[in-house]
Design a protein that fits this description.
Blueprint lengths: L11 E3 L2 E3 L4 H6 L4 H11 L10 H13 L5 H9 L16 H10 L2 H18 L12 E11 L14 E10 L4 E9 L4 H5 L9 E3 L7 H9 L3 E5 L6 E6 L8 E9 L2 H6 L4 E8 L4 E7 L6 H9 L2 H13 L10 H24 L6 H10 L7 H6 L21 H9 L1
Parallel strand pairs: 3-6, 6-7
Antiparallel strand pairs: 1-2, 3-4, 4-5, 7-11, 8-9, 9-10, 10-11
Amino acid sequence: MYVFEQKQNTHGKEDGKMVRHASLFSQLIGLFSRRTFYGLVFRHGSERYSKGFSSWDHFVAMLFCQLAQAKSLREICGGLACCMGKLRHLGLKAAPNKSTLSYANAHRSWQMFRDFFYETLEFCKKTAPARHKFRFKNKLLTLDATTISLCLSLFPWAKFRRTKGAVKLHLLLDHEGYLPTYAYISTGKGHDLSVARTVSLAPGSIIVLDRGYIDYTLFGNWTENGIYFVTRLKDNADYLVLDELQVPKNRNILADQLILLTGYYTQRKCSHLLRRVVVWDKENQRKIALLSNHLDFGATTISAIYKDRWQIELFFKALKQNLKVKTFVGTSENALYVQIWTALIAMLLIKYLQFKAKFGWSLSNLVAFLRWNLFTYRDLWEWIDSPFDTLPIAPGPVQYPLPWRGLGQHLATAKI
């Protein structure tokens, strides 16, 4: 992925000169590297059985689905067909047919879209803030999952309950820019821990987890490998308090203790010295017991780390409210995966625009304004910084009469 910041020829008045630009959607598409994309196409053999509808056309159509919030195949194909004359800037020869797009969603490899997500991620990391809001230099990550409900009669392969279907989207969120560094889609029946055990973490990292990810074997392995965790302690956990640490004054910390797990099985799985920090949640009027293997941080820092876990919930909320991951344009497993991975790529694109913009965009406003201006002819970087500045209307050409009377003018006057 690369940034195409060269000024393309778009019509607008600037310093008395006419300047031309492509549409905003065309400039957004121009941010993606075609060379990288076609390298993935070759690796996955996505063009092996293609008959006119290329993988690039497929990607552009599904990205349009996300940014324009198209609700069906008809809206995707019709929306692109209405923009004929502008599609050549997108690399499209013609808008796809509904049957063609449906077949591509069902049969073209979703793994290609997954790999393109990770290629896009590597570029977005370069523009993300270099540090998180904490003073320590450790990499801070949050692991969580969200359930996407499905109709079982339409998605019989995604059986979750007796009468319900669902898939789970697992994300590992990096707090430097709040970018998803790892994503995995599983069926609704799969346990969250099965994904947590496969995530590779660098020594020195700090991972924040909810109570549903408690696995003392995993915690023991992380501690032995120099990986720190912060999670909630179960109410029925058995432990022995070895030392009471000093509690900071005028804070929401009620207790700070060094403990050992004493359960028969838990002690075998994790025999390391751990930290128990009890925090008072003023908003909900309750106590929250936190568990961590980091013994050097202050209790307020551990509390703030767990509180920042809420950012992944905000990410899931923004993803579901602003992009198309709750309703799908295809019912096959492959079509659903293609749409979710394209939504994650669109989210990276939106986060990248947020990083580059001087205007204080909220994510929801940026998505809405993009949707309303996808085919507006303005420079992307000028628009992203000053979205409310409208360009002056260029006056049309005026033909003045010649200073002498010619034959044609003489005849015209005679007729009048």
